[in-house]
Amino acid sequence: METIWTPHRFSGEVLALDVANTVVLRVDPARTFDRFDDPAEIERFAAAASGFRAEEIGGNTLFVSEPGTAKARIVALREATDALFRDAVTDGTIRSGRLAPLLERCSGALAASPVEIAADRAGLVAGQGRVELEAAVAVSALSLLQPDMRRRIRICGNCGWLFLDKSRNGSRLWCDMSVCGNRQKARRHYRRARNDTGKRTDA
User: Residue 23 in 3-state DSSP?
Assistant: First the structure.
């Protein structure tokens, strides 16, 4: 089934984490699924990301030249990104065993599709036109290694997605308050109502 790439699916706040989050419910093996199973979905993601991540990618257009052959490389880069930064959030450290695969994937992506990287911000230089998704994701992932970026990466308390906490006080709990935050509020309300009902029954 074709994915509708809504703003919620770009709750990671940066391209590399948006790509990591294309595995839905990664923390729930019984319900998890991969939106990139269909290579055509990677193209649709690139088109949507060109709009949602326009600032980060310098207003360039993301594309996938050969979706069928690019899928394995993009998925490998995605998994290396998720493994490194999920561990970093959980353990508070960057492990060399996680870093090496990410650097290898980023190096390969940038060697195959050279791009210009902005010197004054995390992202691509404007005016490059069409940029391979894989290269843009590599630049995005590497930018997250900066300490000021890395310390703001969080794991959503509802769905397990990775996201960059851009709130002023760094206290965001959910990737998307309107979706995951509201679902958690609804669950808490349901539990309280059920507990109150149980107490009245026992009285």
Answer: strand
Which residue is associated with the tokens 């990677």? Answer: 42
What's the token pair of residue 123?
């992202």
- 3 state DSSP class of 12: coil
Please name which of 54, 34, 40, 20 lies closest in space to residue 131, comparing C-alpha atoms: 54
Structure tokens that stand for 80 in this block: 């290396």
- Mean pLDDT, 10 residues at a time, over the chain (203 residues)? 93 98 94 96 98 98 95 98 97 95 98 96 97 98 96 95 93 88 61 60 57
Q: Measuring CA to CA, which residue among 20, 29, 34, 150 is closest to residue 83?
A: 20
Going by C-alpha positions, the residue among 118, 111, 143 that lies closest to residue 17 is: 143
20 and 35 Cβ atoms separated by less than 8 Å: no
Which residue, 170, 18, 155, is CA-closest to 90? 155
How many Cα neighbours within 13 Å face the side chain of 189? 6
